[in-house]
Amino acid sequence: MKLVKFVAIALLGIALIACGGGNKPENVAKKFIEYGYKGDVDNMIKLINMPENAKKDGTQEIVSGKLKQAAIKSKEESDRKGGLKEVVVESSQIDEPNGTGRVKIVVHFKNDGSKSQTENVRVIRSGKEWKVNL
């Protein structure tokens, strides 16, 4: 019985480590771009650094509307190029002491001959988490 518990806990630990990329600025930027090219605005918004008063003054609704427009265009472009093949972090410049940074992302598409797209994402630390800074 103890062996079964040990194995179960070990497998759970491995699964958590493998699935959790952590909240690294590069991972946040990569996910943000992936969501954009898939048209997933709801998950994009979760990754944005949004001030507390944004819900009260309507800023969040405006940002959501603008992101939706951008995501629609990105999804259309991705579909024209056969869909996403790979999203790669090419480089990052992270200023840990100030909690800011830039991540350069390259988006590759499935259609052969489709030109890759380069995206630059600004990130900022908000509390203990990294977020996209628009």
Automatic annotation (TrEMBL):
Position of the signal peptide: 1-20
Gene3D superfamilies, A to Z: 3.10.450.50
Taxonomic superkingdom: Bacteria
Domain DUF4878: 19-133
Keyword field contains Isomerase: no
Keywords: Signal
Database matches in Pfam families: DUF4878
Protein's recorded name: Lumazine-binding domain
Organism, as annotated: Moraxella lacunata
